[in-house]
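Hello, quick one for you while I still have it in my head. A protein chain has come my way and I'm curious about its shape. Can you walk me through what the tokens say about the fold? No rush at all, and the record is pasted right below.
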Amino acid sequence: MKVVIFAGGYGTRFSEETEFRPKPMIEIGEKPILWHIMKIYSHFGFNEFIVCCGYKSYFIKDYFYHYYMHTADVTVDLNNNNSTFHNSNSEPWKVTLVDTGLDTMTGGRLKRIQKYVEKEPFMLTYGDGLANVNLSELIKYHKESKKIATVTAVQPRGKFASLKLSPTNVISSFNEKIGGDGSWFNGGFFVLQPEVFNYIKDDSQTIFEREPLENLAKDGELQAFKHFDFWMAMDTLREKLELQKLWEIGSAPWKIWNG
């Protein structure tokens, strides 16, 4: 199953860092948060990624294009202009980097990578959110629900998309709301059937969290997978420093992989 990651936004609430690089490339423990997200998926055996690029996309493309070299020892023969790589610690990843437009909204970005997903179920998440979600259980839950879409529901701080749930966790409405009142919110980490593209207009201004998800909820095709453990989005410098501190002291809950 392929993993789609939104990584094209401006990150305007994080201008201290995003003036110079896209938010998914902001580092935690000397690795971009995008890398941390991919490591979570890779831990469960998902190693094929489609990254929806936009703002400063060349940073992301350059990072992965040179990833193998940067994780290896290198012998450079200047006389022959040849290089030999040794002891690479590269990942077993296949990464498709798609320029989905500078000002394209999330729905438009998703629609533009449809040809890379083809006609198979896939996963989707945001390039700034970390969690210790059990992806195996998430996928099993999605399959059992037989719905078009499953979203991981979390209880964070701040403003996120509020989910109104039935007793069987079917989502009947999808709205923006202030957090902190015990409500459940959109935490990303979606599992989607290819039919989800029928809900998305081929329009760069389509916002996935608005009409597409709202209509899926109205049709009873949006299921919630409740995640009770760690989840955090990196929207501000304060949150970046909080995640960095967790990493430095060896208490990063999202680090579920070895090494």
Remarks:
- Residues 7 and 119 are 22 Å apart (CA to CA).
